[in-house]
Amino acid sequence: xxxxxxxxxxxxxxxxxxxxxxxxxxxxxxxxxxxxxxxxxxxxxxxxxxxxxxxxxxxxxxxxxxxxxxxxxxxxxxxxxxxxxxxxxxxxxxxxxxxxxxxxxxxxxxxxxxxxxxxxxxxxxxxxxxxxxxxxxxxxxxxxxxxxxxxxxxxxxxxxxxxxxxxxxxxxxxxxxxxxxxxxxxxxxxxxxxxxxxxxxxxxxxxxxxxxxxxxxxxxxxxxxxxxxxxxxxxxxxxxxxxxxxxxxxxxxxxxxxxxxxxxxxxxxxxxxx
Length: 274
What we know:
Blueprint: H1 12-62, H2 74-77, H3 79-88, H4 100-103, E1 126-129, E2 136-140, E3 142-145, E4 157-158, E5 161-162, E6 180-184, E7 189-190, E8 229-234, E9 239-243, H5 267-270
Parallel strand pairs: 3-7
Antiparallel strand pairs: 1-2, 3-6, 4-5, 6-8, 8-9
């Protein structure tokens, strides 16, 4: 009697072909997944900025049309509106601090490294604290353009520029679409000017101005968080993504020279989108 044996299975060559096809598919799919994740983060960030714009409008309506007076505590000033919105939506209310879902860009929601001078990294958050307190109530990664704030009448000058140059309100009588309001940032505020020095690297926080002269204020906002760009809420409540070089062409305060000569771009910025 003769018996037949049926053998099934993959040959080595067939296995290699399968492995190659899987590797090829992964090489195609994984970059697409990262791009999709980046788009989701960008959209979420822009939605957060829109929400801050709504809170600022409500605050302005409650304060004779003026924006917050202290740029260091603008998020704290908006805390009641954030809590009210959270309660109205049915979300649990908390006294622990601002609505954490909107205080940070999704790409920068974790705290920076120690020491504190390293908080301001492009993809890290900084501490939000009550005035005269060292207690961190939340983390943030958005900053306000200090020139939009309603400064105290006793403050005559900010970084060498008359405080009368501050916008103070939404109804400025000029093109509000060109005036930055809240931006992706490494710190809670900044007072940029068109002649400021560009950062030497993405996240040049140690060479930014927290106090003192203002020639390096723009560095807080000139960070490439979104594929070489940054997200900005403007005074007309429009939210747009901008190339970093365009920051030097915006109307930061009433005396801003949007036609000022461009600075010498450092090497890392030369190839960034305009």
